[in-house]
Amino acid sequence: MLVQNYITGDSSVKIARSIEETVAHGKLDAGALLPSVRLLAEHLGVSPATVAAAYRLLQDRGVLVADGRRGTRVRHAAPIALPADSPLPAGVRELREGNPELALLPDLDAAIRRVKTQQRVYGHELNDAALLALAREQFRADRVPNAHIAVVSGALDGIERVLREQLRAGDRVAVEDPCFTGVLDLVNALSLVPVPVAIDDEGPRPEELRKALRGCAAAIVTPRAQNPFGSAVTPKRARELRAVLVPFPDVLVVEDDHAGPVAGAPYVTLADPSRARWAVVRSTSKSLGPDLRLAVLASDAHTHMRVEGRQTLGIRWVSHVVQRLVVSLWSSKATQKLLARAERTYTERRHALLRELASHGIRAHGASGLNVWIPVPEETAVVQALLHAGWGVKAGERYRLNAPPAIRVTIAALEPRDAARFAAELAGILMPRRRVSATT
Asked: Using CA atoms, how far apart are residues 425 and 393, in angstroms rounded to an integer?
């Protein structure tokens, strides 16, 4: 096997370092099959136990994944070096980042002036009682069991804590396809194996979830504002998905409600108190602002105990200043009116772009949330052409596992008149390709 020529070393640490450097320099692609333990051991003149130890080291780091009888492979999106977006040139509209519109976020200066707090010391309660009461009321209204609630530092922090406490390296996790890059990177960094579940505008497709769950320890679902696709789980789809989950009672079900009240769709949960393991994490990032770094986490009693127990060994608690600030904002009638206006505005802007794209015969998805997902024949070429036209959008590659090519467009600050211009220019980029395809 040619890949052996890139691997050197006479100890497990040196062999692991050699493989990791090979992956980092692009000589081994994601999904590449490595030699068997015995074959590589013979090639390097070391014992099979030494090679097996090197492979285990890289599995723990999230670089490799053991795929049963199919062998050991380079993990897709291995977390060695994550690509960073280049700054957009002057004059290019930013439609990449997934941020909320600043004008639709609460005035933090005014809110901070209203907050009354005091110094906290070790031994005090971890979480603000008023915050827990408000969170319980929100979850109750959305039919989410609310007996056990923790406070964490954002949606991804909550998801990571749940996965760390419940799973182990090598476990398989069903994820939406396409899926938020943060979730994919987190799954890979925890040495878990993502299993793609195809989605549509109503969320995970039941038959696809059923296939994926065989052998999975967990499933991560975004019931509304799915990033990047924009799915929103409907009551009918939720009933179908709950039925799919019944034969898999031990699967941990994690729901990500990162957009909360500005999602543009009601929350339809899959959470079932009869399940052994489940969690729903609701973040304030899209509604109150990403810098608040706070989310509330409802879960089963065992998960709650493990998450809060682990917190006491590390950060101990989320700042009570931030907790009190969220209480102040959630309790404010002015904030509630602003959130309602934000939800209407995002919905209008999303619908405007979908309508303009449809007028040019361009299919797109965005049932909820701050993004629209637009299938394209080739991502890089379309992203570059739009950049030259003055639009910065996101290629779909890092969101996809098996899903076809697409681009993601953030609509949070995209006015309807701008949506019309964007759609027309995208149509101009895509139509020549369509005409060529039609004549060949």
From this structure: 13
